[in-house]
Amino acid sequence: MIAQRPAGSARALQASAESLPLADDSADAAMALLTVHHWTDLEAGVGELLRIARRRVVILTWDQTIFCKFWLLDEYLPEAAAFDDTRAVAIDRLIALVGGAARIETVPVPHDCTDGFGGAFWRRPEAYLDPEVRAGISMLAQTGEEVLRPGLARLSDDLASGLWHTRHAGLLNRETLDIGYRLVIADLEEQTPSRRPEDPGPP
């Protein structure tokens, strides 16, 4: 991903979320994008966001109770939903970790979303049949092709027969869809010292 960045982009640092090579209060804001479920130590990673951010911490994640009802998982790939059940981070847990005073915002996904995350192709179902697309979606790549094969075959058949389009006709004219993606936003300047989490100290 770093190699694909255009010339002149801001400097990119490679590090683990649990040990960011940045000074305390060195950024106005810190953002984590669809990543907290990959961290080995969630508390340490969120602690690092709080350590380096002066004003705001933003975490883009998903609500698994909503996302598991997404047609791809509910109708075709329940195995991927089960895999996500093992790693999804509850919204309430994130709120507690950032100090308990965060607000939650819904992130509707546009039908022509260009970022290939899990729910990006909700109105373009044929994309999920592309192995390159699946390779870029961790819940599918990590569940494994062998496990997904029967469900993908059903999806392929339903697209060929028109059944998917009949079943999901209500989606075809929608511009956006709420699949469960959420922003957890903590405005640190509004938190009192007693409510802002303690500095976890060096990792």
Describe the fold and architecture.
The structure is a single chain. This protein has helices at 42-52, 64-67, 71-76, 78-85, 91-97, 131-135, 138-143, 145-161, 163-167, and strands at 27-33, 53-62, 103-106, 109-110, 176-177, 181-187. With 203 residues, the protein is α+β, with helices and mostly antiparallel strands. Strands 1-2-6-3 form a four-stranded mixed sheet. It has a two-stranded antiparallel ribbon with strand order 4-5. The protein has a single domain (26-189), classed as Rossmann fold (3-Layer(aba) Sandwich). It has nine helices and six strands.
Summarize the structure.
The chain is α+β, with helices and mostly antiparallel strands and 203 residues long.
Write the topology of this structure:
Elements: E1 27-33, H1 42-52, E2 53-62, H2 64-67, H3 71-76, H4 78-85, H5 91-97, E3 103-106, E4 109-110, H6 131-135, H7 138-143, H8 145-161, H9 163-167, E5 176-177, E6 181-187
Parallel strand pairs: 1-2
Antiparallel strand pairs: 2-6, 3-6, 4-5
Which features does this protein show?
single chain, about 200 residues, alpha+beta, Rossmann fold, four-stranded mixed β-sheet, two-stranded antiparallel sheet, 6 strands, elongated, disordered C terminus
- Our measurement of the CA-to-CA distance between the termini, rounded to an integer number of angstroms, reads 26 Å
Total separate domains: 1
CATH topology: Rossmann fold
Structural class: alpha+beta
Strand content: 15-25%
